[in-house]
Design goal:
Largest sheet: none
Helix content: over 70%
Number of helices: 30
Number of strands: 0
Strand content: under 5%
Mean pLDDT: 78
Shape: globular
Order of helices and strands: HHHHHHHHHHHHHHHHHHHHHHHHHHHHHH
Low-confidence stretches: 1-6, 8-15, 340-348
């Protein structure tokens, strides 16, 4: 994928004149500013103008305008402009239209660092917090670059690496929040991206930090122009690409960390705005940087105005970050849906492993399941001593058995269900990177369940698997519609996954920002907990899993033929279209069942089939037996570790599975670069 193919836009006719384009954008910005001030204040324009010119506030409305409405407008303009500038810079450096602080992992790293600071150093000054946020952002970006490498920055590898890092960082942040609920209560509104202000303190703190943007505008255009010639061309003209990239990246991360410290996580502005700027005719590096900056300020101001309007209709305030995500996720698909093709770079491939399953592997996987079940039933954490470890093993009483067996059944069934869903998707789409969480099917089920709880009422468990199935099916339809033209390219699939993940995060942050009693219940369910499942639910879950496993075995021949190609399947008498539809419905059912009973589980559906392949299960039939066993082992181990690691506190199995699976997945992706 060349830089010209990636970043150029074919139709600048409407905005050929740069001066006209900038004047139009400035006019829209001015109108957005006036509309925003009108929504946030009851004062007429003449009185607002007099207060801006220096008249001392006298009434309550005057004070509200000076210390609430005006700082919010200024902060929206500053943050929107800076995030768009950083997004444009990252996309030009890498020639990748999907790169931004969100997809590069910088935002999630900064968020995790600030969550840790809020828990362990709550009295730390904002300047200190910004340095921690910068450290978290740098750590995430370094990890992503280590995985993708320089050659993967312009295509899909860096997006997949950023998404994996984002899920991993989010799982760790969730674990910290669950273990420190009282210390993190005030994080929810801020985590949703909140621009509400009561004075000028944050504007005064942020303005000097964002002055770095002026330096970027001065030094970045020439290196960016030379980078369009390629490394060899830039080097021939005297540009040392390595040091300049490090400088530009560090300055960009400083801007992102400062903005997140002030207002929380506001995604998509940095991703969408540069694409809009290019579609409106921005061609040169300086033009794209400046025009993206202007559009970013306008975009966040308009989006925040919509959030203010929605807050008047809703019983609770709608955070600005939530509004940006709800608008930005569909816009992301719209603007870049044609930029990803079936030949997009898919350099991230996992190791191939053994050629066939050994006899030891067939014994090892069931033995690991048995050992973990014994540990879950008989291990007593508070009786463990290093000198006498056997003292921690006691035969469970009836009470203990009644408490533990539903957890074990739930964890095992969740591992089987997600492994089956991932295996079928990978075979069906012929894409080794496919899984329910990466493609957004789990997010669709989660979105439907949380939306049902928020807008209809009741608990998530009352919604049931049928609501979850509807969410997964909706994502499936979207995947089929968007992916058919691109022949189900990995880029399109992962793009939908990123968008839907952002949507569900926005909705969850909105629910948590309400501060209601259901907030921690929802975040506990989202972390994938087993200890809230009753006996009846566990038995029902087991029955459904056995049924789905039997149906998967019955479709083994279909999977074998379809994975060999539609022409081969049709030559053997299989109706490929009908079989594909049945298999996709089976995937939706697996996702819905697991998500409704336990919550969303990340990475298990991706890793279990790959680990089975590493063990030698290359054909469908061995995979159908070995991958569910691997999924069971991962979930049972995660559930046991979450129980004993911080005993008497408990960590949800889904969170630990995401941390363990995400870490292992990132290791597999980076394995070739570490050699």
């Amino acid at each position: 994928m060349s830089g010209t193919d990636t970043l150029a836009s074919p139709r600048p006719a409407l905005w050929q004149g740069a001066a006209g384009r900038y004047l139009a954008a400035l006019a829209v910005l001015l109108l957005a500013l006036l509309w925003h001030l009108h929504l946030n204040s009851t004062l007429p324009l003449s009185q607002q103008w007099s207060l801006i010119l220096g008249r001392a506030p006298e009434t309550f409305d005057d004070i509200q305008f000076v210390y609430a409405a005006l700082p919010r407008v200024v902060l929206a303009i500053l943050v929107g402009a800076v995030m768009a500038l950083v997004g444009s810079l990252l996309q030009q450096v890498t020639q990748n239209p999907l790169l931004s602080p969100m997809t590069l992992g910088a935002a999630s790293g900064a968020w995790l660092a600030l969550v840790c600071v809020s828990v362990w150093w709550p009295d730390l000054a904002p300047d200190g917090r910004s340095w921690f946020a910068l450290g978290g952002a740098v750590a995430s970006v370094v990890l992503v670059l280590l995985i993708a490498g320089r050659s993967g920055l312009s295509g899909l590898p860096v997006i997949l690496a950023g998404m994996a890092t984002h899920i991993l960082m989010g799982a760790v942040a969730t674990a910290v929040i669950l273990l420190n609920q009282y210390a993190t209560q005030n994080l929810f509104i801020w985590g949703a991206g909140d621009l509400t202000q009561t004075d000028w303190s944050w504007v005064q703190w942020l303005l000097p930090k964002l002055s770095v943007a002026l330096l970027l505008l001065l030094i970045a255009p020439r290196p960016l122009a030379l980078l369009r010639l390629g490394d060899a061309g830039a080097g021939a003209r005297g540009l040392s690409t390595g040091p300049i990239l490090v400088v530009l990246l560090m300055l960009s991360l400083w801007l992102v960390a400062s903005a997140i410290t002030a207002v929380g996580v506001i995604s998509f502005i940095g991703l969408i705005t540069p694409n809009i700027a290019r579609s409106m005719g921005a061609r040169t590096p300086r033009d794209e940087l400046c025009f993206s900056l202007l559009l970013g300020a306008t975009g966040l101001l308009l989006t925040d105005s919509l959030a203010v309007m929605a807050s008047d209709w809703l019983p609770d305030l709608l955070p600005s970050g939530t509004a940006v995500a709800l608008i930005g996720a569909p816009a992301l698909i719209w603007f870049v849906r044609r930029k990803l093709a079936a030949k997009d770079q898919t350099a991230l491939q996992l190791p191939e492993g053994a050629s066939r399953v050994s006899r030891w592997s067939w014994w090892l996987a069931p033995l690991a399941v048995v050992v973990l079940v014994v540990l879950g039933l008989c291990f007593v954490p508070d009786a463990f001593r290093w000198r006498q470890p056997w003292a921690a093993f006691q035969w469970p009483s009836d009470l203990v058995m009644s408490l533990r067996w539903p957890r074990l059944v739930t964890a095992a069934c969740a591992g089987v269900g997600m492994a089956l869903a991932g295996l079928i998707l990978q075979r069906l789409i012929r894409n080794p990177l496919a899984s329910p969480d990466i493609l957004g099917m789990s997010a669709g089920a989660t979105f439907a369940l949380v939306a049902f709880t928020v807008f209809i009422g009741g608990s998530i468990h009352e919604a049931g698997p049928f609501v979850a199935f509807a969410g997964s099916a909706g994502v499936l339809v979207l995947l089929l519609l968007l992916g058919r033209r691109a022949h189900y390219a990995p880029g399109i699939m992962i793009l939908v996954g990123i968008s839907l993940s952002a949507l569900i995060e926005a909705l969850v942050q909105f629910v948590l920002a309400k501060g209601s009693d259901q907030a921690y219940a929802i975040i506990g369910w989202l972390s994938g907990s087993t200890y809230r499942v009753s006996d009846a639910e566990a038995l029902w879950f087991a029955g459904g899993t056995v049924l789905l496993f039997g149906l998967s075995l019955a479709t083994g021949r279909w999977l074998t033929l379809i994975s060999a190609g539609d022409h081969m399947a049709q030559a053997r008498g299989l109706n490929a279209s009908r079989a594909r539809l049945v298999l996709l419905v089976l995937v939706c059912a697996c996702c819905a069942l697991v998500t409704a009973l336990m919550g969303p589980i990340a990475f298990v559906g991706l890793l279990a089939p790959h680990v089975a392949t590493l063990m030698g299960a290359r054909k469908v039939w061995p995979q159908l037996w070995l991958a569910p066993l691997v999924g069971m082992v991962l979930m049972l181990f995660s559930d046991w570790l979450g129980w004993v690691l911080l005993y008497p506190k408990q960590m949800p199995a889904g969170t630990l599975a995401a941390i363990l699976g995400g870490s292992y997945f990132i290791y597999l992706l980076a394995r070739r670069r570490l050699r």
